[in-house]
Write a structure and sequence with these properties.
Blueprint: H1 6-15, E1 18-22, H2 31-41, E2 45-49, E3 55-56, E4 59-60, E5 74-77, H3 84-93, E6 98-101, H4 108-116, E7 120-122, H5 127-134
Parallel strand pairs: 1-2, 1-5, 5-6, 6-7
Antiparallel strand pairs: 3-4
Helix pairs in contact: 3-4
């Protein structure tokens, strides 16, 4: 069952340092671009993941999670709901701590698979909205 508890979500956001942004875009009008910039402004290391790019904003862009050679705290997903299963499999393979499915992204089966692999799941929520709501100083 995806996490709904504010205290648990706050803990995930507080402890995370590295966010892999799956579905990252170079296009400033895309939500994934704006959220990536937001997370950078809040001090996170953001790793763009999109097989269509080699770099975004001067940062190396990886084709998939398994190409990243460092620990990942949160896999923030900007992909269609039917693509989530494969991403969750990759998140489990790299031992990500959490998968975050953005607003409108829902895949119950993939969420159950992630939880079975010991990965925290946040689903159908915007990470920037939740950060702003929960991380007030």
């Amino acid at each position: 069952m995806p996490i709904e508890d504010d205290a648990v979500i706050r803990k995930i956001l507080t402890e995370a340092k590295v966010v892999a942004l799956v579905g990252a875009s170079k296009k400033p009008y895309r939500d994934s671009y704006r959220i990536g910039q937001f997370l950078l402004s809040k001090g996170y290391t953001v790793i763009p993941v999109n097989p269509n790019y080699t770099e975004i904003e001067g940062e190396k862009c990886f084709p998939d999670l398994q190409s990243i050679r460092r620990p990942i705290d949160i896999v923030d997903i900007f992909r269609a709901s039917d693509a989530i299963g494969e991403i969750v499999d990759d998140a489990a393979a790299v031992h990500a701590k959490a998968v975050w499915m953005q607003l409108g992204v829902v895949n119950e089966k993939a969420a159950q698979e992630a939880e079975s692999a010991g990965i925290a799941v946040i689903m159908d929520r915007c990470i920037a909205v939740e950060f702003t709501r929960l991380m007030k100083a």
